[in-house]
Design goal:
heterodimer, A: 93 residues, 3 helices, globular, B: 315 residues, alpha/beta, Rossmann fold, 2 domains, 12 helices, 16% strand
């Protein structure tokens, strides 16, 4: 069944227009690697040159931002939903 | 009772209520800090006053000065109240899709409203306010997202108040917007007890993200970067509108009539209580429910309200 990755509108064109793609991997890092192998155009937009997450990208494992879990080492299991989202201003402003 | 000379003197020193009856874990207490008790009705009164007083100290404001600020509501309302009392003019850049009461309250306090496209959310309001401020150097732009007085207000007031009332706090949970509350309170509490965990709750970014043309249109508040928010926060969790409204309703069982973002923060507190063995969670109730009555959050079918909530900025 694999892992479902949801892409924001701004990244879909680099993934053949798909809103969700199914990928394999046991960690967030492996999942993103599988994703960017399948869609090389996503690579630089998601992962920065130094190998960390692009600063304007947030990656969520189900509801939790992975930067505050184990980052790219965060474990994932079949059935998890990963969302990639741009960082935007929100909140009670 | 003390008689105060100004409404500004009753900002802060808000009460805390034990709402552990809503905790799913009998070994975890949950205590809410009722920021809706501030005179302008929200936690944002604190930063509104702090930012204006700092600008006064720096000589940026004279009687009759004009200020401009992007806000989806509460900061604008707090600023409008302070400006009314102090005799300044205020322009608020407000996304068009906020609840009608937020717009009405801004008018009550005499603020001029400049609408930004609802589809662009708070990002769009920030962008428009920055542009207008650049075009009008004579206007004072406090810019809550980058103003050090924002987190400082919480470091100097909200944080010490929590520590004074609940020194046994193990987890602090608040909403993530400018990040001012989380940075200021989080920093203070961690200085007092490094073991305190700080959790951020955010709404799904939803439709406004669809307005982004490229990732570099993304935005991280400067105060979050300047204060190394990534290092300070221990967890960041999204809570959706349905769950937020469910908890907004359940809080009524504890006697609390609160805004929808406070329901979201409560949902985060419940998740936290389920994950930890024992502890004391302090949550922020950002505002009361008054400004959200028009959404039908307490009265209408929950699925209908959820759909409505997706189209407005309630956080």
């Amino acid at each position: 069944m694999g892992i479902e990755v949801r892409l924001p509108t701004v990244l879909r064109s680099a993934a053949g227009g798909q809103a969700t793609v199914s990928v394999e991997g046991e960690t967030i890092g492996e999942v993103l690697k599988d994703l960017t192998n399948n869609f090389p155009g996503l690579g630089a937009q998601v992962i920065a040159e130094d190998g960390t997450l692009h600063r304007f990208v947030n990656v969520y494992l189900n509801d939790d931002d992975v930067r505050y879990l184990e980052r790219l080492e965060t474990k994932v299991v079949d059935g998890d939903v990963i969302s990639i989202l741009p960082a935007v201003a929100g909140g009670t402003l | 009772m003390t008689v105060y000379s100004s409404v500004l003197d009753i900002i802060g020193r808000t009460p805390m209520i034990d709402i552990s009856q809503l905790s799913p874990n009998p070994r975890v207490r949950i205590i809410a800090k009722l920021e809706g008790q501030n005179p302008g009705g929200s936690v944002k009164d604190r930063i509104a006053l702090a930012m204006i007083e700092q600008a006064e100290k720096e000589g940026l404001l004279q009687p009759g000065s004009t200020l401009i600020e992007p806000s989806s509501g509460n900061t604008g309302i707090g600023l409008a109240m302070v400006c009314k009392v102090k005799g300044y003019n205020l322009k608020i850049v407000l996304p068009s899709n906020v609840s009608v009461e937020r717009t009405q309250l801004l008018s009550v306090w005499g603020a001029e409203i400049i609408q930004s496209p609802g589809s662009e959310g708070s990002n769009g309001a920030v962008r428009m306010a920055r542009k207008l401020a650049a075009e009008h150097p004579e206007w004072v732009f406090l810019y809550q997202y980058a103003n050090p007085s924002n987190p400082r207000a919480h470091y100097e007031s909200t944080g010490p108040e929590i520590w004074h009332d609940v020194p046994e706090v193990t987890h602090f949970i608040a909403g993530l917007g400018t990040s001012g509350t989380l940075i200021g309170v989080g920093k203070y509490l961690k200085e007092k007890n490094p073991k305190v965990q700080v959790w951020a709750i955010e709404p799904p970014s939803g439709e406004m993200v669809d307005g982004l043309r490229n990732l570099d249109d993304g935005y991280i508040p400067p105060i979050f970067i300047d204060n190394d928010g990534e290092h300070l926060l221990d967890r960041k969790t999204v809570v959706g509108p349905k769950e937020s409204i469910e908890w907004t309703r359940k809080l009524v069982d504890a006697g609390l009539f609160v805004g929808i973002s406070s329901g979201a923060i409560m949902a985060g507190a419940v998740k936290c209580a389920n994950l930890i063995e024992e502890g004391t969670i302090v949550t922020i109730v950002c505002d009361g429910g008054w400004k959200y009555l028009s959404t039908g959050a307490w009265t209408d079918d929950i699925d209908q309200v959820t759909e409505r909530a997706k189209k407005i900025i309630y956080f």
